[in-house]
Amino acid sequence: MKMLEGKVAIVTGASGGIGRAIVKVLSEEGCAIAGFNFTPSMDSSDYTEYIVDVTDRNAVENAVKSVLERFGRIDFLVNNAGITKDNLVYRMSYEDWDSVINTNLTGAFNMIKATIRELVKNEGVIINISSVVGLEGNVGQVNYSASKAGLIGLTKSLAKEFGKKNLRVNAIAPGFIETPMTEKLSEEVKKVALEKISMRRFGKPEEVAKLVKFLIVDGTYINGQVIVIDGGMEL
Ligand SMILES: NC(=O)c1ccc[n+]([C@@H]2O[C@H](COP(=O)([O-])OP(=O)(O)OC[C@H]3O[C@@H](n4cnc5c(N)ncnc54)[C@H](O)[C@@H]3O)[C@@H](O)[C@H]2O)c1
Q1: Residue among 47, 90, 144, 221 flagged as catalytic
Q2: Which residue, of 53, 81, 109, 226, has the greatest Cβ tally within 10 A?
Q3: Quick one: angle between helices 17-28 and 205-217, nearest 10?
Q4: What is the SS3 assignment for 137-188?
Q5: Segment 58-86, tens digit of pLDDT
Q6: Is 50 an annotated catalytic residue?
Q7: Ligand 1 pocket check: which of 15, 18, 197 to mutate, most ligand atoms within 8 Å of Cβ?
């Protein structure tokens, strides 16, 4: 029997590298998926796509209402949408600070505000996709690392707030995963990153997606944690 038959998940950034893999793995277990994408995706064959900018509170609320009208329930929220706008602080614009914090951190908060009552009702699961950079920091990423560290604080506080209601909240901190986000990095940056990974390879989106599934299906006593998935990386 499929493990998630009758359940409904919202995955933000469903068209991206990791988001797409999360959709695939959860839908293979029978989960219905609403994918919240910034722009229309070329391939949304195994999920229902909603065009939503997670920074837009009204758009988020309206889309969540549409999901409830269509599917009748929401069990899982995967806050996966995220962006980078890297630069050294001297050169980082205020706009690049704001847009990364707004998308990666406030976007997740907007999603949580719009779904929390439904998730509590269904004793659901929230998974926030953070980053090892949120734990360790990284040169050129003060905006990104602050947003990802913020997600970790948010995760732990939410877990404490809702544990007694059986809503579980965890964060995943991936290292270097092969997706469009990392594809744009220079060969030199990739080479340096690879040398720091004990397994000497980058991760695959499916490997992160399988961890999401584990946390939903099997991790029934895991709450308020940050699970690192980085092939043994030293930043
Ligand atoms: N790739 C990595 O090495 C890596 C490592 C650690 C953490 N992460 C995190 O994993 C998540 C997914 O990253 P990815 O590598 O798949 O990147 P990606 O660029 O392939 O996908 C990002 C997705 O987020 C969506 N998105 C961006 N802004 C949005 C907005 N305002 N509203 C709605 N959707 C929006 C994009 O459309 C895209 O679908 C991100 O949160 C990223 O920070 C990635």
Answers
A1: 144
A2: 81
A3: 40
A4: CCCCCHHHHHHHHHHHHHHHHHHHHHHHHCCEEEEEEECCECCHHHHCCCHH
A5: 999 999 999 999 999 999 999 999 999 99
A6: no
A7: 18
pLDDT at residue 54 above 80? yes
Q: How close is the Cα of 5 to the center of ligand 1, in Å?
A: 27
Instruction: Report d(CA 137, CA 146) in Å as an integer.
Output: 8
Ligand 1 site residues (CB inside 6 A) read 12-13, 15-19, 36-38, 52-55, 80-83, 103, 107, 129, 131, 174, 176-177, 179-182
Return the percentage of the chain with pLDDT > 70, whole number: 100
140 sits in the region (left: phi over 0; alpha: psi -120 to 50; else beta) called left
pLDDT of residue 1: 82
Domains of the chain by range and CATH?
A: 8-229 (3.40.50.720)
pLDDT in tens, 141-194: 999 999 999 999 999 999 999 999 999 999 999 999 999 999 999 999 999 999
**Distance from C-alpha of 168 to C-alpha of 8, rounded to nearest angstrom:** 16
